[in-house]
């Protein structure tokens, strides 16, 4: 599809075609009803949009008569140049699926840019495997193990504030782990490889466990009332419920002092975890600033 062909279409048409491409590229399929529900158009109009996209971008989508849906074509080449932030917003928050455009902001604003972005082709393969509930063959590069070939069963994306991970069951270690998406190469969806019951998300204890945390103004920082205002605390406490699998990331991102004696110093530590035992059993609690695992009592009693 050329820019001239796109220019001949109306903006609503381009938005619908962009949605078609997003669905097929990152989810793996689209049905006529998806367009009807998203844009409030008639079924006949949705049929025309799908036919138009197929004509303008040959090889990008194929009709699956058995599933009565359009699926990713073997020769897919993206037509729309979506910024990674837009794609991730759509995948995780469900908006931003119109044609990517530079629009004038309503008010002046600035925000820090991420230093890294996942490759969209890799991300698309990961998310298609998630949607289709299939294993994923990957080449993974880690600091400790270098390059390894793995089969994983992905089911969720995690933003740790610095980079994106995919939560998955790792068949190599037989554990649920987080994989940095930028370290994944050559992903392949393994459609004919069944997923075992123990590889599904409901068997991931760290994912299904919800931890309840109480954050308070750091006792050694001045003007606690300002911290209460900044974080909209209720009675001097910010109460949070997090998945255990994400708790360490979030506490690190927010620079929460998780030491039992609020011993961390520095202006960045505005918050203190009131009860460090709330992180007991959280696998990534070691990421939380100042966290120390409870040690057994000398007499054999409970944790301290």
UniProtKB/TrEMBL annotation:
<dbReference type="InterPro" id="IPR059019">
    <property type="entry name" value="WHD_CapW"/>
</dbReference>
<feature type="domain" description="DNA-binding transcriptional repressor CapW C-terminal dimerisation">
    <location>
        <begin position="210"/>
        <end position="275"/>
    </location>
</feature>
<dbReference type="InterPro" id="IPR059020">
    <property type="entry name" value="CapW_CTD"/>
</dbReference>
<dbReference type="Pfam" id="PF26107">
    <property type="entry name" value="BrxR_CTD"/>
</dbReference>
<protein>
    <submittedName>
        <fullName>WYL domain-containing protein</fullName>
    </submittedName>
</protein>
<dbReference type="Pfam" id="PF13280">
    <property type="entry name" value="WYL"/>
</dbReference>
<feature type="domain" description="DNA-binding transcriptional repressor CapW winged helix-turn-helix">
    <location>
        <begin position="14"/>
        <end position="91"/>
    </location>
</feature>
<dbReference type="InterPro" id="IPR051534">
    <property type="entry name" value="CBASS_pafABC_assoc_protein"/>
</dbReference>
<dbReference type="InterPro" id="IPR016634">
    <property type="entry name" value="CapW-like"/>
</dbReference>
<feature type="domain" description="WYL">
    <location>
        <begin position="121"/>
        <end position="185"/>
    </location>
</feature>
<dbReference type="Pfam" id="PF26109">
    <property type="entry name" value="WHD_BrxR"/>
</dbReference>
<dbReference type="InterPro" id="IPR026881">
    <property type="entry name" value="WYL_dom"/>
</dbReference>
